[in-house]
Amino acid sequence: MAHIVAFISYLPDRTEYEARARSVPQHEIEEAILPEGFPIYLSSKMAWDRESISSYEDDYILNLDDSQLKEIDDALQHFKASQPCHFPLPSLHSVLRGVSDNIHKGTGFSLLRGIPVDRYSAEENMIIYVGVSSHIGRMRGHVVVTHITDMRPPSDPTLSVRIAGHTNEDIPFHTDSGDIVSLFALGEPAEGGDSQLASGRRVYNELARTRPDLIQVLASDWPIPRSKKEDPVLYRPLIHYQNCSGTPARLLINFSRRGLAGYGDLNRTRLLSVRQAEALDALHFLAESILHARRGYKDGPQQKRHLLRLWLRDPGNAWPTPKLLQHKLDAIYSKEQSPGPQVFPPYPYTTV
């Protein structure tokens, strides 16, 4: 019977992680093999690290020039003056389709710079964000838009909430549920708040080389909490490999410590084994040393960190969804499960 961990912290603890790693018999590590069908090494532009990613800046950074910014402004005025049904970008459209190509077939992420958000109202920024992003992924999740900012009232800044994105605290490496996670920066904090990215393929390659036993653990079933009262836990792997002829090799990582470790007033539903706890920490610390995280921050009197988030999907470029993740994607994008008309609140709610 697997040894059970009574407690695992939401924020990874390196001392606990290293202690668990030392407890694994060396012969188990040396004798371990990768799960059937999983590759020894993933060779892909997506398998970048701190040093190599700088050589791909032309692929993932799009600095919008004056003509492109004018085209976005013209589309905004068109949208406001007519029936709000589309956001025409006749020249920029092909460039944004290239952004989608890079997300799915290149480095795995892109950065658009130059939109002067201070020039526009909250409603206009929302229109621009949704309009531009629709040329990258035309499908939007049913939640539509989320405000990522500290929503706790000044009178109770330590209020316990269920969503770390609604606080100013550290968020460990994780993946969101959406196919494409899109963020639009409206405001910066006085201090901190850096968003961090890591290559899941680079993490996989390191684990496959040094700890194939942890790949076995990650590719086995984990107790994933979900909202269905009659079936509150789904058992599935955290990593999925699609052995296909497509480029790049399709490795999907889907996990969050929030449900597995608990966060705020959200309690975890199942205990983890020692090996699962070690594997979960390994994802974080490998990502940190060489997936998606945020440093804690401090807002100022006139400086407040504020992002908008959309979960997008581009049917033309989207990868096939693993069977055990299909219910999750259906809940986000399926027309049959849509709760109704899409709503885009330009301001965050005042309560959490």
UniProtKB/TrEMBL annotation:
What Gene Ontology terms describe what this protein does at the molecular function level?
oxidoreductase activity
Name the UniProt key words of this record, in alphabetical order.
Oxidoreductase
Q: Provide the TauD/TfdA-like domain boundaries.
A: 77-288
UniProt cross-references to InterPro entries, sorted A to Z: AlphaKG_dependent_hydroxylases (IPR050411), TauD-like_sf (IPR042098), TauD/TfdA-like (IPR003819)
Please tell me whether the keyword Hydrolase is annotated for this protein: no
Q: Which Pfam families match?
A: TauD (PF02668)
Q: What PANTHER family would the database entry show?
A: FAMILY OXIDOREDUCTASE, PUTATIVE (AFU_ORTHOLOGUE AFUA_4G13850)-RELATED, GAMMA-BUTYROBETAINE HYDROXYLASE-RELATED
Record's protein name: TauD/TfdA-like domain-containing protein
| Organism field | Aspergillus minisclerotigenes
